[in-house]
Design a protein that fits this description.
Layout (H helix, E strand, L loop, with lengths): L4 E5 L3 H9 L5 E6 L2 H6 L7 E3 L4 H7 L5 E4 L6 H14 L3 E3 L12 E4 L2 H9 L4 E5 L5 H7 L3 H4 E6 L2 H7 L5 E5 L5 H10 L2 E7 L7 H11 L2 E5 L2 H5 L1
Parallel strand pairs: 1-2, 1-4, 2-3, 4-5, 6-11, 7-8, 7-10, 8-9, 10-11
């Protein structure tokens, strides 16, 4: 049997599990955007390319692969669109691994379709806000949400890149690494008198059920942003 040469767009636990499930006869190379993405791949024993790539970069990097598997984060829209277009142009078989959609039972759950809609909703409410959406979109919320600097709290990855980016955002940050326990989150919500927890709907892998459970215990509202893949379905 001919050895398959597979490129995996990684950086998520989904990608790590998928790589571990492959037969040892396959030749796998993983592509991640950040050093933390490489850490998630610990134990997979495959070459890892670290760094963000544009269309030209992917076109060069993916040359010679028999297949590309995209297991990037569901909100990494630009990466998915770029890789899909490159594969189509180079006629490389492309597979997207999507996370299953979950349904959450909570009467104080509000669902919106974008960060813009989330910002509009947050401008209409009062109280302290707890963002669990990652550091990349925090500058957007800082500019779009009213009274942001006085009521914004956020949990982000405790990495050098996150700390550097957070320095420019006027919020109170909790730097930590997953997994996050429900008890820890509950304690933080209570300590800072949070009124709304904001999260992307990144599914079970993104700890969304645990976030909602913590909010339930405190009795606060949850604002959930749908992933682009959910909107397309």
């Amino acid at each position: 049997m001919k050895q398959r040469k597979i490129a995996v767009i990684a950086g998520t636990s989904d990608a790590t599990d998928w790589i571990r499930s492959l037969p040892e006869t396959d030749s796998v190379t993983a592509f991640v955007a950040t050093p933390y993405g490489k850490e998630i791949l610990a134990g997979t024993n495959c070459p890892v390319h670290v760094g963000r790539l544009d269309a030209a970069g992917f076109a060069e990097a993916l040359t010679g692969f028999d297949e590309v598997v995209d297991a990037s984060h569901p909100f990494a829209v630009v990466v998915t669109e770029t890789v899909k277009a490159v594969c189509q142009a180079k006629q490389i078989p492309y597979t997207r691994i999507s996370r299953p959609t979950l349904h959450y039972d909570y009467e104080k759950l509000h669902i919106v379709s974008s960060k813009e809609a989330a910002a509009d909703w947050l401008c209409s409410c009062t109280g302290n806000l707890f963002f669990t959406v990652g550091i990349q979109t925090m500058p957007f919320y800082a500019a779009a949400v009213s009274d942001f600097s006085h009521r914004a709290f956020a949990r982000v990855l405790d990495t050098a890149a996150s700390r550097q980016a957070a320095a420019a955002v006027p919020a109170t940050f909790w730097f930590a690494m997953p997994p996050y326990s429900i008890a820890e989150t509950v304690a933080y919500l209570q300590e800072h008198q949070i009124s709304v927890l904001i999260s992307k709907d990144s599914g079970a892998r993104g700890g969304v059920p645990e976030k909602i459970q913590a909010a339930k215990q405190v009795g606060i509202q949850v604002l959930l942003i749908q992933s682009p893949e959910q909107i397309e379905r």
